[in-house]
Amino acid sequence: MQKEIILNLIEQKFNGNILDIGFFNYGIVYNIIKNTQESYSLEYFHNESKDINIDENFYDSSVLFFSFSEILFRLKRRNLLIKIYEGLKEEGILHIWDINKGFGKTYNNKLKIFLPKGKVKEIIIKDYNIFKNVSKKSTINLLSSKFDIIEEIDEGELYYIKAQKKRRKNNEEIKSSSSRDKF
């Protein structure tokens, strides 16, 4: 049975150069930015971008808005996080909103999203793959080697994670350890 879930993003803000990675262009990030900043740089990648080329150390923030759970395999989610890590400036911020669904579960709900300036968007999110684990715990495990968790909100069926790129110690250490990383 489908439920309606409310997500209040009226006060949400992003700063600087923003990388929005999504499988569906809901226009959520764009609507937040255009209503809260006078000047901004927003780049959007979607599922048709098979090989995402992200400029290194360019973005202040990256946003995954109900898109992380669209990636079927954990390895592909890990690889995407590595690309995001490389694209973020030192101390850059990653925002993730997604469904909290573990193995053996399905998801089918309507989200009502409140945005700045009285805008409201409604989207339906469905995931019937019982073999996919896209829980908050799984996401935090993927993030832990490259990001520090600043904030996490668990609303039961949805979660939000705000993570900051970990500082690099020095370029040599990064190059020598990149092949061994178990992200």
Task: Note down, in words, how this protein is organized.
This protein is an alpha/beta fold and 183 residues long. The chain has one domain (4-177): Rossmann fold (3-Layer(aba) Sandwich). It is 21% helix and 36% strand. It has a 6-stranded mixed β-sheet, with helices on both faces. Strands 1-6-7 form a 3-stranded mixed β-sheet, with no helix packed on it. The chain starts with a strand and ends in a 6-residue tail after the last helix. Mean pLDDT is 85; it is low at 172-180.
The helicity comes to 10-25%
Q: What's the total helix number?
A: 4
CATH class division: Alpha Beta
Radius of gyration: 16 Å
Largest β-sheet summary: 6 strands, mixed
Q: Which superfamily, in CATH terms, is the homologous superfamily?
A: Vaccinia Virus protein VP39
Q: How would you write the strand order of the largest sheet? A: 3-2-4-5-9-8
Enter the CATH topology name.
Rossmann fold
Class by alpha and beta content: alpha/beta
The average pLDDT value, as a whole number, equals: 85
The low-confidence parts are 172-180
Instruction: Tally the beta strands.
Output: 9
CATH architecture: 3-Layer(aba) Sandwich
Give the termini distance in whole angstroms.
36 Å
Helix and strand pattern: EEHEEHEEEHEEH
Strand content: 35-45%
Q: Shape from CA axes?
A: globular
Domain module count? 1
